[in-house]
Amino acid sequence: IENHDEPRSAAEFGDRVQAAAVVISTLPGLRFFYQGQFEGRTKHLPVQLGRWSDEAANEDSERFYERLLAAVNDDVFHAGEWRLLDVHPAGDGSTSDLLAWQWLRDGETRIVAVNLGGGIAKGLVQLSYELPGDPRDDAVLFEDQLDGQRYPWSRNALNERGLYVKLNKGARAFLVTTKKRKE
Hints:
Layout: H1 9-13, H2 17-26, H3 59-72, H4 76-79, E1 81-85, E2 87-88, E3 98-105, E4 108-115, E5 121-125, E6 139-144, E7 150-154, H5 155-160, E8 163-167, E9 174-178
Antiparallel strand pairs: 1-3, 2-5, 3-4, 4-9, 5-8, 6-7, 6-9
């Protein structure tokens, strides 16, 4: 989301920088990060200067990137199968601001949903795979790998309507996971 020829991502994306970072970190392909991006630097300096400014690091940005890099280091993001997911309306017109995709590998699933719009966005993410676990067990647990929160869902509700997602204005992406239970 940034390089030496472009404005710094923290300055360019503002309160949507975390959503942009999650997008670029979880799409298929090689992931590039630029010096100072993790620290949330905002000052763009031409590389011809050969030096950086004494800009203080943004601790929130550093913590966010630490959690994000730990989450996307999983094999499912490198050797898994990627699929774009449909997002259906959930009561208002904000669904078009949401994007969602999944990664699948060896019974493990990662679902990524981001709000790239200018306000709160709601939608029903249509899961296109068989959820791990015993189909007779109606409980499915999703865990946000960026903040550790857990969200229990009914398998029947997920199959009938989809995964309900409500995200604030691009302020942060929502990265959830389900894992195959170890036998």
